[in-house]
C-alpha cells in the first residue's frame, strides 16, 4: 500500500489541496506520459504541479476570480489536466466538453454556464465558434495549442505558452475555499432536449478520491492506459483518484490502443463495454485466423464449466446466490472434472491472450453501460480481472462496484462507502422489498448539488429526502449487490402490454460473431425488431467457407442498393435469423415476447462521428430511431 492513502485527504476542502500533498510524496515519479504527441511529453508530479500553478496564476492575472465559470472545450492531453486543475486551483469552476462537439452545443454551454473565459483545444475549435463568439462578454480566450491567433476578438487571446509566461511573471494567490463550493459543471449529452449542467462540488469529487480504493489499490508507479474522454465524469474521477495514488497516466487513442497495450504493459485501465468488446472481437479474429477455433471453443467450454463450479461452491452465481449443500457438492465435482482442461487451456490459449494485452493487468474497470455476460465470462476465464461498476454523471460518478473477492457476473457490485441504494416502484416511487425490480434511487456524498439554473429539473431528480432518481431499473441482492436490468426510458412496450428491456437482449445477440452492433425497436408493435450492423469480416469468412456469393455494397450505397445486394440474399438473411433465434432462446428466462421477428441490416456503424453514440460509446437510441424511422416503420 502507498504511504499516502484516503486518510491523508479527509481534511481537504478542495481538489486543489491534493497538490499540497502529492508532489512531496511522489515528486520525481512520472505522472503523465503522452507518447503520441509531438514532441513526446513526460511530466513528473513535481513538474505537473508547477505547470498547474503557473496556469492558475496566469488566470488570476487576467482577472479570473474565485467562483467564476470558465468553459474548457478540449480533449485528452497533459494540457487538458493542467488547464482543468489550474482553473480549479484558481478557485474557478470549469464547464467542460469535447472540442469536437457540435458548434451549437458548445455555444449553448458557454452561454448557459455564464462563463467569463474560454479555454479551447486549438485554433480550429476557436474558429468553429465564430462569428457568434464575438458577441460573448469574455475576459479572455486561451488556446491549449502553441498557435498564434490573428483574428480580432473583443477580448485578448493567449496560447498555452503565453498564458504560462503570464504565470511566471505573476504571483499566485492561494484560494481558501469551502468543500461545498462548486468545482465543475459537466453537461449531460442532451439526446432528448437541451443538455443540463450537472453541478459537482469539491465534496462530491473528493468522495471518489477517498473511496475508489475500496475497488482497486494502485501503487506508486503503476501504469494506467487512459483512453476515455478526460472531461467525462467517469474518466475524470478515475484520473483524480489514480494521480492521488502516484500512478503514471499514459495517453492513448483508438488508433494506438492495441499496440500500446503491448508496448506499455498497463497495470490498470478504465474503460467502457465497447472497449472490452473490441479486444474480445480482436482475440476471436485471431482464433478464427489460426484455424484452431474449434479447439479454442472446446477449452472455453471446459473453463466455463470450471467457473460455474467455483461460483456454485462460493455462492457467487447471480442465479443461485444461496446454494444448497447439494449445489455446492455438484459445484465441487464440476471444478474437479473441468480443472485439468482449464489448466491446459490456460497453458495453450489463455496465456497468449494475456500476453496480447501486456501481461501485467492487475484489474480493468468497466462502467458507462451494460457489459454483455459472454464478455464478462471470457475475461474471467482467461484470468484478466474485469470489475464492473455503476454510476452516473450526477453521482460523480461511481456509486457501486464489484470487488476482486466478489466479482459476480451480471451485477454492478456493492455500494461505495457513504452510499445508499433504494429500489422504488416506478410509478408510486415507494420503496420495494429486497429482490424486487424497480427504479434505482441513490443517496450519498457523491450525489450532485443539482442542475445549474434548473431548480425544477433538480427537484424532479432529487426528492426532499435527498434520494436521486437514476432513471435506471434494477434490483438488489441480499448482500446489497446492485443488478441493473435496463433504463426506464429505454423500455419497449409491445402492443400486448409486455415490457421489454432491450439491453439484456442486445447483449446476448452480440455473442454472435456476425453481429457487430444492434439496437432493438418495436415500441407499440406486436413484436420486436432490430437494426443490425453486421461484422463484415466474420460474414465474409462465413461466405467463403460456405461458398456463398457475398459482394458487399459501399457504406454510402442507397437503401435500395443494399437491399438488392448479396447482403440481403436468402442465405445471409437465414444466417442472421438463426443466430438471433439461437442467442435469444439460450438466454436464461427466455419468453416468447423476447423473439426478434424482423430485422434490417445497415452498413454505417453507430459512432461518435455520426452522432449516434455518446463519448463513452453508448448508442443514442432517440437519435438512431429518428435517423432510421422510415426503415423501422417499414419493418412493421
Automatic annotation (TrEMBL):
Q: Which of UniProt's keywords are assigned here? A: Ligase
Per its record, what are the GO molecular function terms?
A: long-chain fatty acid [acyl-carrier-protein] ligase activity
PANTHER family assigned: ACYL-ACTIVATING ENZYME 16, CHLOROPLASTIC-RELATED (PTHR43813:SF1)
Q: Name one GO biological process term.
A: fatty acid elongation
- Residue ranges of every copy of the AMP-dependent synthetase/ligase domain listed in the record: 25-452
Q: Record's InterPro entries? A: AMP-binding, AMP-binding_CS, AMP-dep_synth/lig_dom, ANL_N_sf, Chloroplast_AMP-bd_Enzymes
Gene3D superfamilies, from UniProt? N-terminal domain of ligase-like
Name the source organism. Answer: Cyanobacterium stanieri (strain ATCC 29140 / PCC 7202)
SUPFAM superfamilies given in the database record: Acetyl-CoA synthetase-like
Domain of life of the source:
Bacteria
| Transmembrane domains' residue ranges | none
Name assigned to this protein: AMP-dependent synthetase and ligase
Amino acid at each position: 500500500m502507498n504511504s499516502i492513502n484516503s486518510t491523508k485527504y479527509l481534511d481537504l476542502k478542495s481538489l486543489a489541496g491534493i497538490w499540497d500533498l502529492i508532489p512531496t510524496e511522489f515528486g520525481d515519479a512520472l505522472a503523465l506520459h503522452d507518447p503520441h504527441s509531438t514532441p513526446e511529453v513526460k511530466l513528473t508530479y513535481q513538474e505537473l504541479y508547477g505547470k498547474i500553478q503557473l496556469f492558475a496564476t496566469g488566470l488570476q492575472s487576467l482577472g479570473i476570480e474565485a467562483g467564476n465559470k470558465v468553459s474548457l472545450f478540449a480533449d485528452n492531453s497533459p494540457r487538458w489536466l493542467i488547464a482543468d486543475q489550474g482553473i480549479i486551483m484558481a478557485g474557478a469552476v470549469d464547464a467542460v466538453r469535447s472540442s469536437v462537439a457540435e458548434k451549437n452545443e458548445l455555444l449553448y454551454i458557454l452561454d448557459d454556464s455564464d462563463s467569463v473565459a474560454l479555454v479551447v483545444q486549438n485554433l480550429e475549435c476557436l474558429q468553429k465558434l465564430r462569428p457568434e463568439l464575438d458577441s460573448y462578454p469574455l475576459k479572455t480566450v486561451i488556446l491549449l495549442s502553441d498557435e498564434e491567433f490573428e483574428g480580432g476578438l473583443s477580448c485578448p487571446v493567449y496560447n498555452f505558452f503565453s498564458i504560462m509566461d503570464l504565470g511566471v511573471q505573476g504571483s499566485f494567490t492561494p484560494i481558501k475555499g469551502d468543500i461545498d463550493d462548486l468545482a465543475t459543471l459537466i453537461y449531460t449529452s442532451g439526446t432528448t432536449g437541451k443538455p443540463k449542467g450537472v453541478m459537482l462540488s469539491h465534496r462530491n469529487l473528493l468522495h471518489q478520491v477517498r473511496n475508489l480504493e475500496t475497488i482497486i489499490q494502485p501503487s506508486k508507479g503503476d501504469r494506467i492506459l487512459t483512453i476515455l474522454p478526460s472531461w467525462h465524469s467517469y474518466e475524470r474521477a478515475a484520473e483524480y483518484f489514480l494521480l492521488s495514488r502516484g500512478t503514471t497516466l499514459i495517453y492513448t487513442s483508438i488508433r494506438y490502443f492495441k499496440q500500446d497495450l503491448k508496448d506499455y504493459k498497463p497495470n490498470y485501465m478504465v474503460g467502457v463495454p465497447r472497449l472490452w468488446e473490441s479486444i474480445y472481437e480482436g482475440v476471436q479474429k485471431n482464433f478464427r485466423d489460426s484455424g484452431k477455433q474449434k479447439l479454442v471453443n472446446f477449452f472455453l467450454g471446459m473453463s466455463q464449466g470450471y467457473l460455474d463450479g467455483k461460483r456454485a461452491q462460493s455462492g457467487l452465481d447471480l442465479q443461485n446466490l444461496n446454494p444448497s449443500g447439494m449445489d455446492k457438492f455438484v459445484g465441487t465435482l464440476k471444478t474437479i472434472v473441468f480443472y485439468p482442461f482449464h489448466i491446459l487451456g490456460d497453458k495453450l490459449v489463455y496465456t497468449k491472450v494475456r500476453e496480447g494485452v501486456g501481461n501485467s493487468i492487475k484489474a480493468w474497470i468497466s462502467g458507462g453501460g451494460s457489459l454483455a455476460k459472454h464478455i464478462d465470462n471470457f475475461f474471467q476465464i482467461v484470468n484478466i480481472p474485469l470489475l464492473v461498476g455503476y454510476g452516473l454523471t450526477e453521482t460523480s460518478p461511481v456509486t457501486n462496484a464489484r470487488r476482486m473477492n466478489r466479482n459476480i457476473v451480471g451485477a454492478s457490485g456493492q455500494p461505495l462507502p457513504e452510499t445508499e441504494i433504494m429500489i422504488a416502484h416506478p410509478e408510486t416511487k415507494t420503496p420495494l422489498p429486497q429482490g424486487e425490480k424497480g427504479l434505482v434511487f441513490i443517496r450519498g456524498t457523491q450525489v450532485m448539488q443539482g442542475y445549474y439554473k434548473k431548480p425544477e429539473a433538480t427537484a424532479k431528480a432529487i426528492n426532499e429526502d435527498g434520494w436521486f432518481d437514476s432513471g435506471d431499473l434494477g434490483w438488489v441482492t441480499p448482500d446489497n449487490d446492485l443488478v441493473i436490468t435496463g433504463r426506464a426510458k429505454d423500455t419497449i412496450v409491445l402492443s400486448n402490454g409486455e415490457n421489454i428491456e432491450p439491453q439484456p437482449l442486445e447483449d446476448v445477440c452480440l455473442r454472435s460473431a456476425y453481429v457487430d452492433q444492434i439496437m432493438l425497436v418495436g415500441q407499440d408493435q406486436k413484436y420486436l425488431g432490430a437494426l443490425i450492423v453486421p461484422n463484415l469480416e466474420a460474414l465474409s469468412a462465413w461466405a467463403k467457407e460456405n461458398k456463398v456469393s457475398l459482394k458487399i455494397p459501399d457504406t454510402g450505397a442507397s437503401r435500395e442498393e443494399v437491399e438488392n445486394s448479396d447482403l440481403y440474399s436468402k442465405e445471409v438473411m437465414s444466417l442472421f435469423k438463426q443466430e438471433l433465434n439461437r442467442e435469444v432462446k439460450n438466454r436464461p428466462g427466455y419468453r416468447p415476447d423476447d423473439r426478434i421477428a424482423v430485422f434490417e441490416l445497415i452498413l454505417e456503424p453507430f459512432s461518435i462521428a455520426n452522432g449516434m453514440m455518446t463519448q463513452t460509446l453508448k448508442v443514442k437510441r432517440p437519435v438512431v430511431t429518428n435517423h432510421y424511422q422510415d426503415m423501422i416503420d417499414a419493418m412493421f
